[in-house]
Design brief:
The protein has helices at about 5-20, 190-195, 285-290, 305-310, 330-335, 365-370; strands spanning about 25-35, 40-45, 50-55, 60-70, 80-85, 90, 115-130, 130-145, 150-160, 170-175, 200-205, 220-225, 240, 250, 255, 260, 270-275, 280, 295-300, 300-305, 315-320, 325-330, 335-340, 345, 350, 365, 375-380, 385-390. It is mainly β. A six-stranded mixed β-barrel has the order 4-5-10-6-9-8. The protein has a five-stranded mixed sheet with strand order 14-17-26-18-25. It has a four-stranded antiparallel sheet with strand order 16-15-21-22. Strand 4 (about 60-70) and strand 5 form a beta hairpin. The radius of gyration is 22 Å and the shape is globular. The two termini are about 45 Å apart. Mean pLDDT is about 85; it is low at about 5-20 and about 45-55.
């Protein structure tokens, strides 16, 4: 090989490596989290004498999180979720009196040399299916560390009200669609892009769904900032345009249950992606559950016959997005729960009856969908890309 050819090869390798290193990789961890608001009690008659036994049951959802730090010097790492519904990031503050003594760290801006007060108040009461999320506090500015990436002068919310539905994390990093801003706060994705920390305003989520969500903890995914990672998906990404300036929203062309059309989306329906949601939240969710073969146990709690779930006799659900079919199998929309004296197979499809605001009347696809399909969020080209995860 001549000198010029060898030099060209080295140059190409350097260009490849520099592009690869431009991706910021953030490990995502998993742990099961019981949604306390869905815990219920029922009486079951057992034995020849018909003894009545009280059983507590409910949902045990996937919780995906990372570790994020705030301030200079960086304070104790906070357990944080990435949220694609909003651009506003928040961290639990030492000003939260109800949060004291709960065994996790609180952000103390008085200990940070890069803290800049803002003070604008924020109050949001957001309802989504089985939980309410109240954001109550004031805006502050400081450095946020995402893995090794230091995002300077980022405005975020200091949360001063304890929220029982989010007591398993102490912070949320907002990765909502760029148009979703509050009080003219720039989202952290565009702050990173503006500072040259990432090549482009694009990120990709890889969620690995554990086979047993009840006792599985550890590293179960990766967020890439600045692009997506083809090592995590098979084939090529298929894109759909974002059709609303307010959310990571797109159109579902139609839905089939087996070979039958789900009539409540026969002419198409709007959908959004929500990384913090561990279920599907769907308009007419009761009709969808019924068509899939589920039945109501009590109080609108839908379950499948576990023998049908194990045997593979339940139908697939197919979402057609921009002309391409995405199969959601029974293992994606249900799971088995062992209550010792019996087994339940709850549905992961919820009704959007209680959803308010921007998500109303939309299909909300949570991380249970993104665990099946790797997802790229491309703000630069106003599109979303899907591909089958290599773990599927």
């Amino acid at each position: 090989m001549g000198l010029s050819a060898a030099f060209l090869l080295v140059l190409l390798l350097n260009l490849y490596c520099s592009k690869a290193s431009a991706l910021v990789r953030v490990p995502i961890h998993h742990e099961p989290h019981p949604a306390s608001l869905t815990h219920r009690r029922m009486s079951i008659r057992t034995g020849d004498e018909g003894t009545s036994i009280n059983v507590t049951y409910g949902d045990l959802f996937n919780c995906y999180f990372s570790y994020i730090t705030f301030g200079t010097p960086p304070q104790k790492a906070f357990k944080a979720m990435f949220d694609t519904s909003s651009n506003l990031s928040w961290v639990t503050s030492t000003d939260c009196r109800d949060c004291q003594g709960r065994g996790y760290g609180l952000y103390n801006h008085s200990r940070s040399s890069t803290y800049v007060p803002d003070g604008r108040p924020v109050y949001i009461d957001f309802k989504l299916s089985y939980y309410n999320m109240i954001q109550n506090g004031y805006l502050s500015q400081d450095t946020i560390y995402i893995d090794s990436l230091a995002v300077k002068k980022q405005i975020f919310l200091e949360q001063v009200a304890f929220n029982s539905n989010f007591d398993y994390v102490q912070a949320v990093i907002g990765l909502g669609y760029p148009a979703v801003t509050m009080q003219n706060v720039s989202g952290i994705l565009y702050t990173m892009f503006g500072e040259g920390l990432v090549e482009q305003p694009v990120f990709g989520f890889y969620f690995k769904r554990p086979k047993n969500i009840f006792n599985t903890t550890g590293a179960y995914g990766e967020l890439t900032l600045g692009g997506s990672d083809p090592n995590h998906y098979a084939g090529n990404l298929s894109y759909v345009p974002v059709d609303s300036e307010g959310l990571w929203q797109f159109k579902i062309d139609g839905v089939k249950i087996g070979e039958e059309t789900f009539k409540y989306c026969s002419g198409g329906c709007e959908a959004v992606l929500l990384t913090t949601l561990p279920v599907f939240a769907v308009p007419y969710g009761d009709r969808l559950n019924q068509q899939l073969g589920a039945y109501i146990l009590e109080d609108d709690y839908w379950v499948f016959n576990c023998s049908d779930f194990r045997s593979g006799s339940l139908p697939n659900m197919t979402l057609t997005i921009n002309g391409k079919g995405y199969i959601v199998s029974p293992e994606d929309y249900a799971y088995e729960m062992d209550l010792k004296i019996l087994k339940l197979c709850p549905s992961l499809i919820y009704s959007t009856t209680f959803i308010t605001g921007l998500f109303q009347n939309k299909w909300v696809l949570g991380n249970v969908f993104m665990a099946k399909y790797y997802t790229e969020f491309d703000a630069a080209n106003k599109r979303i890309g899907f591909a089958l995860s290599k773990d599927q």
